[in-house]
Amino acid sequence: MIDVEGVLRRERAIIAAALAAVTLLAWFYIWHGAGMGMPALAMTRLSFFPHLENEVPGEMPAALPLVVAMWWVMMIAMMTPSVAPLVLLYGRVVRHHAAQGRPGVPSFFLLVGYLAVWLLFSIAASLAQNALQPAGLISSMMLWSKSAWLSALVLALAGAYQLSPLKRACLAQCRAPVQFLTNHWRPGRSGAFLMGVQHGAYCVGCCWLLMALLFVGGVMNLVWIAALTLIVLVEKISPHGQVFGNLAGALLIVWALATLLV
Length: 262
What we know:
Layout: H1 4-31, H2 64-99, H3 107-132, H4 148-162, H5 165-174, H6 177-184, H7 188-212, H8 214-217, H9 222-237, H10 241-261
Helix pairs in contact: 1-2, 2-3, 2-9, 3-7, 4-7, 4-10, 5-7, 9-10
């Protein structure tokens, strides 16, 4: 007799392992510089006011496709852990459907739809980066802000957005995978892909200004990347994620004011 429960447990473990592998491969690519010509460690420094740091000579903007690849892999590394609960829950629902004789669709299609939305964000971020570098607003070497006004503006906008109704609405969708699947279920591969796109849109709506903070602390700064990954993860899976997000917003606003005063 087939141990159905054992098979299901192994399948859950396989999906979880695949998500972990995708995340680790993305972090490995970032660690080795994501095609930017130097390891990320060389572009990593803890600085709360990077515009005060001495400028380090560097290259002009890289080719746009390379910058897009860098941003997208970075988004995969940062966002895959927080979408894992939805992907695993989707796999569980599909297995339940399969046990009832209904066709199932692999979780892969849901994840691809989700990451496709972050690809669109990565294209927009890359265009912004390739505009800010020649303008001298971010360092060509460290990829962080060289302008107190740019830093303060991004920090203040990110802080205010953390406290906004739109942020709360998007975060509510991200924090409730059961409710999301119940309200937005679509059958078939295209349905799974579209669910991933829809959830990805909520996720971008929740986090896009947090990601913009990389222009302040350094696009390839491992400290900032890790810190933002942790903030997003806590916001989405912690019971007190909403409160944590509000506190982070208030801190960012204070940080913006301090940036203009130092």
